[in-house]
Automatic annotation (TrEMBL):
GO molecular function annotation: argininosuccinate lyase activity
Taxonomic source organism: Vanrija pseudolonga
Enzyme class name: lyase
Reactions mediated catalytically: 2-(N(omega)-L-arginino)succinate = fumarate + L-arginine
Protein name: argininosuccinate lyase
NCBIfam families named in the record: argH (TIGR00838)
Domain of life of the source: Eukaryota
Length: 468
């Protein structure tokens, strides 16, 4: 029993308690098994805090130097896998502080926590960690976008049906399809960059909830840690997890876009379409059907969207009912965020590989083009002859119906047929039946004409580079 009481008293909060902690409760409460990945962020924040303590006269120069030396040794132990976790290490913060005191002595190590609570410490660590990870994710997203845009620029000759309601609608360039998806991911890139100032808000110095009484220089802390601003209200600073919710919301939207791209490519890769073929590196076979080549990479990307949305929704429900300032419910922030960041990072890298190695079948795309895809071009033809569009739409529709009735393409209708449909038709109507001409006529900004494809490519590259 005495040993159990010692176990409780060794905890940072142990002095208040006379009874022992239920071992199951200790396990239920501890987070070191997953928050240890923030060890470098915790060391970085603690070294900066020791400098604020030095300026405030809480520690002297020798003590601050020793704290820095000890913390760097702790960080190295984590990095090389030699850090020895003890039974009473609740989280990364207590583990690091315990080990620091072993290295530099309790008289020095014990001063580090002056004016600091785990409440502001963990909030700071989370933000440091997420800022670093966000920079990595931005890099992955830019790499993925560069592959999409480069393929679009190179494969501009391929024309295929564009679809609405999964029905063939009008001819477009393959490049236009790729750039449609790139447009969504470019908006994701913009939103990711816009989040950074809201992540980069310093909580450190807020202590448990009411600030610290030592006059610690929070501007010094901000500069040392590279934050863009300082949390102005200590109660809010220690409990704010909006930046995590927002990141997971961002990730959910990104993965919705990823899922839609995956769905298009899954459909295009079927034998019924045959527009694209995945590289072997991103496909698997069947355990029973040897002819199968399954687009598992794309299906997993599609599936990850549900996983990340679930992490976001779950954490939002954890937060919605808690009262002001810090509550232990907020410990539920780490696992969904860590999993969300890991899933997004992996998804972007896999998607980059899929797109980079994808093979397209331009001949299959061309074979899928049928003349009824030019029905709108017939209507446009008549508009240029001075006929109101509503009337041209009906005339074009009747031409499609007539071709279907005769089981021919609309391009097979005779001049007599066209004249019967409208006296405005002349011999030049047959010039309409050219898919390249069709897409080239759509040369307004946003269209699939060659010069507009190049414009989209140029704009995309500027956005990736952060120039607009």
């Amino acid at each position: 029993m005495a040993a159990e009481q010692d176990f409780t008293k060794r905890k940072l909060w142990g002095g208040r308690f006379t009874g022992s902690t239920d071992p199951l409760m200790h396990e239920f409460n501890q987070s070191l098994k997953y928050d240890q990945r923030m060890y470098a962020a915790d060391v970085k924040g603690s070294i900066a805090f020791s400098k604020a303590l030095l300026k405030a006269g809480i520690v002297n120069e020798h003590e601050q130097a020793e704290i820095t030396r000890g913390l760097k040794e702790v960080e190295q132990e984590w990095a090389n896998g030699t850090f020895a976790i003890q039974a009473d290490d609740e989280d990364i913060h207590t583990a690091n502080e315990r080990r620091l005191s072993e290295i530099v002595g309790k008289d020095i190590g014990g001063k580090l926590h002056t004016g600091r609570s785990r409440n502001d410490q963990v909030a700071t660590d989370m933000r440091i960690w997420l800022l670093d990870e966000t920079a990595k994710v931005e890099g992955y997203l830019k790499d993925f976008l560069n592959v999409l845009v480069s393929r679009a620029e190179k494969e501009v000759d391929a024309i295929l049906p564009g679809y609405t309601h999964l029905q063939r609608a009008q001819p477009v360039r393959w490049s236009h399809v790729l750039l449609s998806h790139a447009s969504a991911f470019l908006n994701d890139l913009t939103r990711l960059r816009e989040m950074v100032p809201r992540i980069s808000v310093l909580p450190l110095g807020s202590a448990a909830l009411a600030g610290n009484p030592y006059g610690l220089d929070r501007e010094l802390l901000r500069q040392e840690l590279g934050f863009q601003s300082i949390g102005e209200n200590s109660m809010h600073a220690v409990s704010d997890r909006d930046f995590i919710i927002e990141w997971l919301q961002w990730a959910s939207l990104l993965m919705i876009h990823m899922s839609r791209l995956a769905e298009d490519l899954i459909i295009y890769s079927t034998a019924e379409f045959g527009f694209v073929q995945l590289a072997d590196a991103y496909s698997t076979g069947s355990s029973i059907m040897p002819q199968k080549k399954n687009p598992d990479s794309l299906e997993l990307l599609r599936g990850k969207s549900g996983r990340i949305f679930g992490q976001m929704a779950g954490f939002m429900m954890s937060v919605k009912g808690i009262p002001s300032t810090y509550n232990k419910d907020l410990q539920e922030d780490k696992e969904p965020l860590f999993d969300g960041v890991d899933s997004v990072s992996a998804s972007l890298r896999i998607a980059e590989g899929v797109i980079a190695t994808l093979n397209i079948n331009a001949d299959k795309m061309a074979e899928a083009l049928s003349m009824d895809l030019l029905a709108t071009d017939i209507a446009d033809y008549l508009v240029r002859k001075g006929v109101p569009f509503r009337e041209t739409h009906h005339i074009s529709g009747r031409s499609v119906a007539l071709a279907e009735q005769r089981k021919v393409q609309i391009s097979d209708l005779t001049m007599e047929d066209w004249k019967a449909l409208s006296p405005h038709f002349t011999e030049d109507v047959f010039e309409v039946f050219n898919f390249e001409n069709s897409v080239e006529k759509r040369n307004a900004i946003g269209g699939p004409a060659r010069k507009m494809i190049q414009r989209q490519v140029d704009v995309a590259r500027e956005r990736i580079a952060g120039k607009n």
